[in-house]
Amino acid sequence: DALFEQFERIGGPSGTLIVLFNMRRIETGDFELNFDTPYDVRLSSFEEQREEERNSLRAYLSVLYLNPRMKVYLRGKKVLTRRILSTLLYPYKYSYTAKNLKACATKEFERCEQKVKEVKEMLRMSSSALGEFEAKHRGQNIHANKTLRIEQRLLAKARADMEAKKEQAEKRASLALKAKNNPIPLTFYFGINIHHRNRYGCMLYNNGRLIEMYVKAAVQKEKNDLMMKCLGVVGVVDVPYSILEPTHNKQSFENKR
């Protein structure tokens, strides 16, 4: 009952309720997330010199997508999304073709083929289960029996879900085959962040979704004059699944190299 009472906090007829639990406390005893700032969620132990996107959820959501198309609201206020490529000064495009792109695409195609086989087998099993149910109760008025009606709907839904997964897996396998036969080079964009020179590094996206941000290049980590010349330089790259696969929490990559 206590769980269902939480849904009453949704004001409209539809919406999403996010419940945070198991929050940690920092050395001062405060929670790691601070909700005191209106319309934002910030880290309690934020660092002034660190990128704002690491301290503020609102700032992070503003650059979450490479080409933002949907509206995002945080604590009742709309997030002003930014297309990061449009904020860079003197943007420079660089195409990079790695030697292992074809090998990565081949491995991805093999994984997709295996996934298609697994989904087809699951679809066959769900279709068989539905067929057995209909054959077992042939001649009966299933719609008059609530239990049988629910069971039939569940079996039909399971088959429909498997058909949708099969189409999705085949589509992904088709794209992987295309990438295998004709590997597409990675396209990097470099520019200067004139608004915040202390925010620099490479923004790594995966299919348009931000995975890692402000990853410093070797020259940007050194404490010398060359490092000072690279301050404010931001790189942006959208890496496909065939090259790097993100982790389940979309905060890093599985097969880093």
Automatic annotation (TrEMBL):
It is found in: Nucleus. GO terms for cellular component: nucleus. Pfam families: Morc6_S5. One of its GO terms (molecular function) is metal ion binding. Residues 56-102, 161-256 form the Morc S5 domain. The keyword Nucleus applies. Keywords: Coiled coil, Metal-binding, Nucleus. InterPro entries: Morc_S5. Its main location: nucleus. Residues 148-179 form a coiled coil. This is Morc S5 domain-containing protein. It comes from Teladorsagia circumcincta (Brown stomach worm).
